[in-house]
Amino acid sequence: MSDDEIFVVDGALRDVWVLSVEVEEWDRVISALTESEWEVVFSTTHPLGDTLLRSGAAALFAALEESGRDSAALSVRIDGIWFTSYFFDPSEIEFTFDPADVVGASEVLVVEAFMRRVGDACGRRVVMSMESSTDREGLPALFEYRPDRS
């Protein structure tokens, strides 16, 4: 499948995800992204605000679950592409992005760099697929990154 086919604007977002993670892996990914050279924006409706992110992933997910109504998002902008996580599930790292932002080879490299940063931070396989709310394992990987564990 060509890049043109992978990033065709079809009304669906693309998902970058890592399955079966622990909160420690979330913490490593959050640290790697917030300490990067990229623009990182955390937003939340929770009264703790930015403190929620600094409290760690376990506390963040617990606070969101306890409130039952608050939400949080971590957005990373790299050369005009926004990758956003909404902290839906502590066992799954998921970032979405709009394929319309990938207009050429340099943007494909941005997607690859983001996936490498996430994968290297958590030491796990990272997959990019079509947007889906269910059956992630059943979706074909459009891109995949596996950190070298040698």
Structural class of the helices, strands and pairings? alpha+beta
DSSP strand tally: 7
Note the main sheet.
Answer: 4 strands, antiparallel
- From the alpha carbons, calculate the radius of gyration and give it in angstroms: 15 Å
What string gives the helices and strands in order? Answer: HEHEHHEEEHEE
Q: Ends: how far apart?
A: 29 Å
What's the helix count? 5
Helicity level = 25-40%
* Overall geometric form: globular
Can you tell me the residue ranges where pLDDT is under 50 for at least 5 consecutive residues?
Answer: none
- Strand fraction equals 25-35%
Mean pLDDT: 92
Question: Biggest sheet: strands side by side, in what order?
Answer: 5-1-6-7
Summarize the structure.
The protein is of the alpha+beta class and 150 residues long. It has helices spanning 3-6, 23-34, 51-54, 57-67, 105-122; strands at 14-19, 39-44, 72-78, 81-85, 92-97, 126-130, 143-145. Helix 2 crosses helix 5.
